[in-house]
Request: fold
Amino acid sequence: MNINVAESAGFCFGVNRAVNMVYSLINDNKKVCTFGPIIHNMEMVRELEEKGCVAVDSVEDVPQDATLVIRSHGVPLEIMNEINRSGIACEDATCPFVKKIHNIVNQESGEGRTVFVAGNKNHPEVQGIVSHCSGEIYTFNNNDELLEIANNILLEKNRPISVVAQTTFDTKEWKKCLKTVKKVYTNSKIFDTICNATSVRQNEAQQIAEKSDLMIVIGDRHSSNTGKLFDICKRKCDKTFLIETAQELDMNVLRNADSIGVTAGASTPARIIKEVLDKMSEETKSSVTNENEESFEALLEESLKNLNTNERVKGTVVSIDPTAVYVDVGRKQTGFIPADELSNDPTVNPEDVVKVGDELELLIMKTNDQEGTIMLSKRRVDAQKGWEELEEKAESKEVLTGKVTAVVKGGLSLVYNNVRIFVPASQATVSRNDSLEDLVGKEVQFRLIEVSQRGRRRQAVASIRSVLMDEINKKRDEFWQNVEIGKEYTGVVRSIENYGAFVDLGGVSGMIHISELSWQRVKHPSEVVKVGDEVKVYIKDINEETHKISLGYKDPDANPWEILKRDFPVDTVVKAKIVGITDFGAFANIIPGVDGLIHISQIANKRIDKPSDILKVGEEVEAKITAIDFEKKRVSLSMRALLPQEEAKKEDKEEVVASVEPEETKAEEAPAEETTAE
Reply:
């Protein structure tokens, strides 16, 4: 008789985390209780009860001196709020994958989308998920229930929906449901939230069941994931049995099978799995083998073999999830690399670092023979190799490229070849005013300025600024070699003063005087440009001695006098707005940047005492352009020319040319028969 034991059998990450949290509190001599059973395995619950940990069903049942642990399934939002209000000491062991679903449904429902949850509506995990949804939500346990919802409840086929799944949902049923969703709802967002460890466990169970005469599934009958395993195995192997402990094992049934498969739910302790395998070995005296046909005794010895901490091993990646990478290190223990031991970059996505099938060199951090796990580190092995390379590059002063990972006390932390390097704030940017936070997550070039090791302490210090200054000096030299008056550049506004804006031309700064910013008068440069704006400028003047550069910015095509010459020749009738009144006439705006003078004699077809008797500021009038002096920038206007003509004195018919000048100057000028205005 051959027995094939699933590699993935036993505690998943979330369950292991929750149980260890409880044991840690108990070992600290704290009084502990859990909200509901910590996991769906009564053997483990009884074991914890013997150690003083009891399960409660409500917040009121929690003793004041106890620490309440939230189970891995999580709890409904209203209960969590009640716990927070009560002030009870609480440790949250909700599986991170479950919390991720909470966040998804909260955001999606908050955006007005209808949420579909694939899962058992009576399961604590699903109840917790539903509680985080603020809008319309529906649950379904299989494709038939989904079709019923689609046909009878949600008749609006194009309504926006978002779909999530219970972490332990049947992967095969999930695929069926996705086909239905995509067919019925074109406006859907699908989140595949089935735990990766669940997928691995279910796929492995199916493969073993396909080639077994008899299948044993070990786990609590109240466990959702164990029930799913049983259903999957039953579809492939008729003789599938679910047992909770070794005492339920029927040896008479086993003796008639040539090939037996064994798997276990995610909440099944390693101790119970071992007891079942021990009983099978003792009573059948058969060789229990895995796919490599090793004897059970050899497997057991190998699985319990202690690996020395700090020993390097080779491992192959078998699965990846957001919090850990699971590897096969050639032993029965489950090898895992926590996310923070995968890379020195805390922001990295595990799937961007390794792929399933990759062979890695790893350092053993800690072994847990009771749970059959080995904690490993990739980043420490990589860091050692990276440090050796770093020492070689320290002398060359070559420019290297690394990624900034965080702002730390006194500067930045960046990673190069899996080695953390410190960059002092003074060496991080060209200017002390530049933000360090803007560099986080970016690839930067740097130069090593110190690499040292004292005992086990290593320190690498680098400068980003030195590389930036090299680039600036290079650009500055190139600029002065090629600069000439009239040449156009694209620059960035770096600072603004009352008198103008300073523009970075690439290592060299120039100034646009306020008078050069616009053809119209502006009170402050900020009316035209802002810091950070990209602007096109041209060299207006250069001081060779001081290296000061004056820049032009006004667009020649927008010159109002050129527009006037093109579109408003003499004798053109225009609508002009009165912008100023003097004793000798009124100033009217023709187009932005150009004002003309309507002399007092050209306002009406009769004599008037003063212009204000006829006109007021802000009034729009029709007038004819009677004369333009482009050299002196003066325009004469006449309203009288558009009115019925009467006998008038000869002096009243003479043209008037006016100069548009500051109002203070105009007031000082005495009105004359021929007056000018800009």
